[in-house]
Amino acid sequence: MAEPIRVLVTGAAGQIAYSLLYSIAKGDVFGKDQPLVLLLLDITPMLPVLEGVVMELQDCALPILREVIPTDKEDIAFKDLDAAILVGSMPRREGMERKDLLKANVAIFKSQGQALDKYAKKTVKVLVVGNPANTNCLIAAKSAPSIPKENFSCLTRLDHNRACSQVATRCGISANVVKNVIIWGNHSSTQYPDVHHCKVNVQGKDVTAFDAVKDDAWLKGDFISTVQQRGAAVIKARKLSSAMSAAKAICDHMRDIWTGTAEAEFISMGVYSTGNPYGVPEDLIYSFPVSIKDKTWKIVEGLVINDFSRAKMDATSTELVEERDTAVSFLGV
């Protein structure tokens, strides 16, 4: 059997991690034959809860789970990591200004970036989930100068999955036959779910999303706003943010990094924008369509961008530039 890999989940006593850890530990992400050591990081007051999570993981009696290490210390959590899933972040509290939220998260992700730089393998793959995910990811990457920026990504796969599901439901088909939707930009309400390059398999034949749905007004209107506002809609209904669906998206994202994407298919993830072919400003973590091979992502090139799409892509990049500039101003603080 292979050597165990070391996988960190932060915010490990939280609700997303509770939905996530079992899937990782049973082999859904890194493979059924890949032994794991799970490192679980959370803040000190959450350690008693974390002990309960550890007990449950032990009680699952999973064949590939070699060890579970709960901790509140970064030097233990980040040591020799192969993969880091950074779920924990400061949530927005009522009455909190966005800049205050950014400031609090800069402190967290600067510290975690420095810990990655100091303790993790230089090959570590880092997925940032905690919001504001794009900017938190950028801060972590900037704080870990010895780790390639290409090793950092943020989660927009949940938005991608939501978009696939909306199209599938509208067409009365299963979500796995909807391919190549794109989430452009920020994991926020300015994101742009784009179906102009989407293929839908209807009765064995690939057709465009516009031909499958046969309702252009919906695809350019309610579909976009539904995906953009879906997180808020879940919170309104559940009184809690998305956990099960977020955990599933994290698994999809990391599995695709580890094993690659299918031929002629692409998925969405927030990656480093410098050198991109779509005119997105440099030095952002921006969600693009990517294909993955040998644990290396590549932005899909050559997609035609119409004026409708361009305006929406620019709007979300404007928000990200503003977020980045605010966050970077706190880096030295």
Automatic annotation (TrEMBL):
Sequence ranges assigned to domain Lactate/malate dehydrogenase C-terminal in this UniProt record: 156-330
PROSITE patterns per UniProt: MDH (PS00068)
Transmembrane stretches, start-end: none
A Pfam short name: Ldh_1_N
Residues given in the record as substrate binding sites: 92, 98, 131, 162
InterPro entries given in the database record: L-lactate/malate_DH, Lactate/malate_DH_C, Lactate/malate_DH_N, Lactate_DH/Glyco_Ohase_4_C, Malate_DH_AS, Malate_DH_NAD-dep_euk, Malate_DH_type2, NAD(P)-bd_dom_sf
Chain ranges of the Lactate/malate dehydrogenase N-terminal domain: 6-152
A Gene Ontology biological process term: tricarboxylic acid cycle
EC id: 1.1.1.37
Active-site residues from the entry: 187 (proton acceptor)
CDD domains noted in UniProt: MDH_cytoplasmic_cytosolic
Top-rank taxon, per record: Eukaryota
Role noted for this protein: Catalyzes the reduction of aromatic alpha-keto acids in the presence of NADH. Plays essential roles in the malate-aspartate shuttle and the tricarboxylic acid cycle, important in mitochondrial NADH supply for oxidative phosphorylation. Catalyzes the reduction of 2-oxoglutarate to 2-hydroxyglutarate, leading to elevated reactive oxygen species (ROS).
The protein's name: Malate dehydrogenase
